[in-house]
Design brief:
Length: 151
C-alpha cells in the first residue's frame, strides 16, 4: 500500500496528526475513525459499515457523516447498518428495514417516515412501516432484492 494512500485515508478521518501514534493509546472514537480509514484503503466503490459514528463525539459524528456523503457523491455505495433512527435519517438517502433477518421495507427515508412508524420502537409498528414501504416499492415497479437461500 503506498504511504500516500495511507496518509490520505488518515487525513480523511481526521487522524493525519496521529499517524505515528500507537492505536492502543487511542480513544474509542479514534479507534472508530482508524477502522474507517482502514476501510477506505484501496478506494473501494462499496463500503459496508456497522455503526460508523458509534463512540464519536458530536463534532466527529458530523465530520464522518460529511465524509460518507462525499464518498457517496463520488460514486461509492455506502451500506450503513444502524439501529439509531436519527443516524439513519441524517446519513442515508435509501433505507432497507430488516426484521427477524427478513427484508421488510425498502424506500427513501421520507417514504418510511411517512408511515408514522419511523420513531416507534414497536415491532408491530415497524412491520406496518415495512408493509407500507414494500407496497410503495412494488407500486413503482421496482424489483426488490431476492434474499439468499437459507443455509
Amino acid at each position: 500500500m503506498p504511504p500516500a494512500e495511507i496518509d490520505a485515508a488518515l487525513a480523511a478521518v481526521g487522524l493525519a496528526d496521529r499517524a505515528r501514534d500507537r492505536a492502543t493509546e487511542f480513544s474509542r472514537g479514534m479507534k472508530q475513525r482508524l477502522a474507517l480509514a482502514t476501510a477506505l484503503l484501496g478506494n473501494p466503490r462499496l463500503l459496508v459499515l456497522d455503526e460508523p459514528t458509534d463512540g464519536l463525539d458530536p463534532i466527529g459524528t458530523v465530520e464522518i457523516r460529511k465524509l460518507l456523503k462525499r464518498l457517496r457523491d463520488g460514486g461509492a455505495t455506502v451500506f450503513l447498518s444502524s439501529h439509531l433512527l436519527h443516524e439513519v435519517e441524517a446519513t442515508c438517502d435509501r433505507v432497507a428495514v430488516l426484521d427477524g433477518g427478513k427484508l421488510r421495507a425498502v424506500g427513501s427515508v421520507g417514504e418510511l417516515k411517512g408511515t408514522g412508524a419511523w420513531r416507534s420502537s414497536s415491532s408491530a409498528s415497524w412491520r406496518r412501516a415495512a408493509r407500507d414501504g414494500l407496497a410503495s416499492e412494488r407500486a413503482r415497479g421496482r424489483a426488490l432484492p431476492t434474499p439468499p437461500p437459507a443455509i
